[in-house]
Structures are given as structure tokens and as C-alpha cells.
């Protein structure tokens, strides 16, 4: 296949390109050249900004375009309009954050988020999902049955620029006491970028239409189970110390930001149904493999973790919790 990738040098795009090259597809990258520009030296690269330089793609034909970096509907609309006649299929990477109020088991038909002001372009926690909904709409309006929408959950694994999942393997590598939320009934979901890339490629190769939630695992995974899996995968002797969420809040340790990957109240966002994607060929590697690979990769990086609280903050909360429970 001839594949055009918008982006392609970071995380999801990188995983997709690696999968495509492994299956001997002809790949063209279109990006600004600001991240990992030399990552794929043998791949055709067209440098440009998708807001101003799409004319550099004119006169070319591809079987499919994979849009890994569309966040604003106006900008996605520019790509859609430019590529409507140039590509056979438009595969758009969206997010499970498009759901307005997901319930456990929510599938692709669940109600979608809306924006009070659909012209807003600032990407925040409040607007992210609604903007992606409008991006999806632009793709579907232009391409109809030639549109494929993939809605990933949290994307994890080697090369993750956020460190949200990575935070936990690194805590267990350090050993000692690991501060954790007492969240016995809170679920978590995530997908390895390599599994997501392979799934996207399978959809493209099979010329598949429709919308697909893409996350994992296949069965409900509770947060304490995830912590135990991480401990075992790392081979750590660390001790997990579960702390009441109310106590964490008192010490300004919040879900997702303070302790990443923990969603706090389990309202369904971590129990999204993936039956449709599984039927379309989504395959998920063992969680322990993702954990180990992530830890091995992160140890090659020197910069501090971008997510989670500092080790000093964690120790202070652990000390305060120990004092609390000792009376």
C-alpha cells in the first residue's frame, strides 16, 4: 500500500510507521520536522505545517492517509479538503474522551461530548473530547464510508512522551515503599502504542470503515491488580502502601496528575467496551511485556519523569500516613 502519515515520528505515529515498514508498505511522512526528524532516514518525508503547507501534497495519490495529530476541527478540515481526492481512505486517530458520560461497557454508540462554543480552538481538559468529536465529524462528512475512526484509551509503552503510565514501573524499580491510592474497585485501561499501530495498519490493509474503541485489557483490570502486575513484571521487592484517597486529597495528591493512571472515581471511562475492535483484529500483548519494555526504555532517558509527584513528596505523604495509622 501507499500510505501517507500526518505526523509519524512520535509515539503513535512512530509505532504505526514501524508496523507499516515491517510489512513492506510504501510510506510518506508529512510533518514539521521538529521531532525525531531523522528517525526514518529511508522513508520519503515532506516537511510542512498542516495549517499552511498542504499544497505540498497536491498532485500525489495514496491508498490511505493516517492522521495521528488532528486536534482542531478547522485544521483537520484543511487536511480533509486537500486529500479528499488524493487518498482512498482517511484513518483518523481520535480518543475515548469523545464520550460525554461513559458508563461501564460503553461502546461506540455512546453519546458524544459537545462544546458550548464549537468555534473554540484552545485544547484543555474540558475541550479536548469535544474538539475530537468535531474532528471526527469533519472526516466522516468528507469521506463517508471511506472514513475510519480509531478511539484509543490511554496510550502507553516505550517512547511515551507523557510518563503517565511509565511513572509506576519506575517507582517499583526504585524499590522501598510505593505510595498508591486505596482504590480496590477502580478500573484502569490502556493500550500499548505498538498494538495500536498494528491494529490501525490492519484496518488500513483491509480497507475497513467505521469507528473502533481501542484500549485494553480484554477483561476488567482493577488498579490494585495493575500495581501487583507491575511489581511482578519488574521483579521488585518494593512494598505497596495503599492510602485513603481522602488523605491523599488532604495532602494535595490528586488522581491522574499526582498519581498518574489512577482515574479516581470509576465512572466508566476505564471500562470502555472493545468488542468491535477485537472482532476487527485488535490484538493485545501481555501487560507485563508492556511494563517491562517501558521500564527498559525509560532507563535510557536522563530527564526527570514528566508525570506524578516527586519522590520527596511521596515520602512526605507516606510518613504522614504512617503517623496517622499509628495513632
Describe it.
The protein starts with a strand and ends with a helix. It has a seven-stranded parallel sheet, with helices on both faces. Helix 3 links the parallel strand 5 (87-93) and strand 6. The chain has helices at residues 11-22, 73-83, 128-143, 167-174, 193-205, 223-234, 245-250, 275-279, 287-298, 311-325; strands at 2-6, 26-31, 44-47, 62-67, 87-93, 147-152, 155-156, 177-181, 187-188, 191-192, 210-214, 221-222, 239-243. The chain has two domains: 2-152, NAD(P)-binding Rossmann-like Domain (Rossmann fold, 3-Layer(aba) Sandwich); 167-189 and 217-271 and 286-322, UDP-galactose 4-epimerase, domain 1, CATH 3.90.25. The chain has ten helices and 13 strands. The longest helix has 16 residues, at 128-143. The protein has 327 residues and is of the alpha/beta class.
Briefly summarize what is shown.
The protein is an alpha/beta fold.
Amino acid at each position: 500500500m501507499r500510505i501517507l502519515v500526518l505526523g509519524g515520528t512520535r509515539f503513535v505515529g512512530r509505532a504505526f510507521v514501524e508496523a507499516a515498514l515491517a510489512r513492506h508498505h510504501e510510506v510518506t511522512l508529512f510533518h514539521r520536522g521538529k521531532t525525531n526528524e531523522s528517525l526514518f532516514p529511508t522513508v520519503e518525508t515532506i516537511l510542512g505545517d498542516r495549517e499552511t503547507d498542504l499544497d505540498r501534497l497536491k498532485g500525489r495519490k495514496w491508498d490511505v492517509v493516517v492522521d495521528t495529530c488532528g486536534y482542531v476541527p478547522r485544521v483537520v478540515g484543511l487536511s480533509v479538503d486537500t486529500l479528499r481526492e488524493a487518498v482512498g481512505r482517511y484513518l483518523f486517530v481520535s480518543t475515548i474522551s469523545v464520550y460525554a458520560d461513559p458508563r461501564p461497557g460503553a461502546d461506540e454508540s455512546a453519546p458524544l461530548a459537545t462544546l458550548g462554543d464549537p468555534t473554540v480552538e484552545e485544547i484543555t481538559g474540558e475541550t479536548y473530547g469535544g474538539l475530537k468529536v468535531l474532528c471526527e465529524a469533519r472526516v466522516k462528512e468528507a469521506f463517508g464510508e471511506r472514513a475510519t475512526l480509531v478511539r484509543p484509551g490511554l496510550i502507553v509503552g516505550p517512547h511515551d512522551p507523557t510518563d503517565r503510565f511509565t511513572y509506576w514501573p519506575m517507582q517499583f524499580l526504585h524499590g522501598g515503599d510505593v505510595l498508591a491510592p486505596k482504590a480496590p474497585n477502580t478500573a484502569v485501561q490502556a493500550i500499548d502504542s505498538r498494538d495500536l499501530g498494528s491494529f490501525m495498519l490492519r484496518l488500513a490493509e483491509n480497507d475497513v470503515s467505521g469507528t473502533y474503541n481501542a484500549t485494553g485489557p480484554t477483561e476488567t483490570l482493577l488498579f490494585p491488580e495493575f500495581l501487583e502486575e507491575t511489581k511482578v513484571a519488574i521483579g521488585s521487592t518494593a512494598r505497596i502502601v495503599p492510602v485513603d484517597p481522602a488523605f491523599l486529597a488532604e495532602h494535595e495528591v490528586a488522581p491522574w496528575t499526582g498519581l498518574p493512571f489512577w482515574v479516581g472515581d470509576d465512572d466508566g471511562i476505564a471500562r470502555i467496551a472493545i468488542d468491535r475492535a477485537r472482532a476487527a483484529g485488535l490484538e493485545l500483548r501481555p501487560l507485563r511485556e508492556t511494563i517491562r519494555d517501558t521500564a527498559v526504555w525509560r532507563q535510557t532517558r536522563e530527564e526527570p519523569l514528566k508525570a506524578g509527584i516527586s519522590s520527596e513528596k511521596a515520602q512526605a505523604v507516606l510518613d504522614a500516613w504512617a503517623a496517622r495509622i499509628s495513632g
